[in-house]
Amino acid sequence: MAENALSVNGLSVKYGAIEAVKGIDLVVPKDSIVALLGANGAGKTSVLRAISGLSPVASGSITYFGKDITRFDTERTAKLGIAHSPEGRQIFGDLTVEENLQIGAYTIGDRRAVAENMRRCQRIFPRLAERMKQLAYTLSGGELQMLAIARALMMHPKLLLLDEPSLGLAPLIVRDIFDTLRQLRSEGITVLIVEQNALQTLKIADYGYVLELGTVRAQGSAADLLKDDTLVEAYLGGKA
After folding, report:
1. Which domain does 4 fall in, by range?
2. With 152 labelled, which of 75, 117, 185, 197 sits at a CA distance of 20 to 30 A?
3. pTM
4. Alpha-carbon 81 to chain mean position
């Protein structure tokens, strides 16, 4: 049986009186891609924010490779090897590509390790390697998303949390991004991805959870979810 990189049990996340996530359970096996799917307002982003320490957990627990991280802040989760690439990319436009990547390595004190991570990101994203001295605001949308993922990879994470990486991108760029996620999985990085592009995501994922109003509406292997015509029509944006 595969080791679990992440186990979430009874997770609730509240913003004042609003309960965005309502006691959900989910598991992310090591070396897998797991998709969190559902409409806007389903609670997907709140789950990622709770895992990375950006949003407080109201109740429940989060375990990372057997360690309870439920009350950890973002710095502690980052040092453990959890990298979060948020929705909207949040790139520093007035800094160069190289400077943005260096910011991603803030938890690493070893200069040689940072240099090695930089070379690795350039290998994974050759287009960024050609633009290291370019200001980030001059990049295309696809290049900005590559930079956002690469910045997260500068931490050399074991677990990568991705929030809407395909948002606003052309289909060919989306394919390139998703091909990269397959590559990362083969290199030993576990991925938990939030996406509205559900059908495309399930084609690269191993397992999926469909959230609705803060609860798990359905779950299963990616292949099984794609075969469920009723589920696809109701929650996943139409026929596969």
Report:
1. 1-81+159-240
2. 197
3. 0.91
4. 13
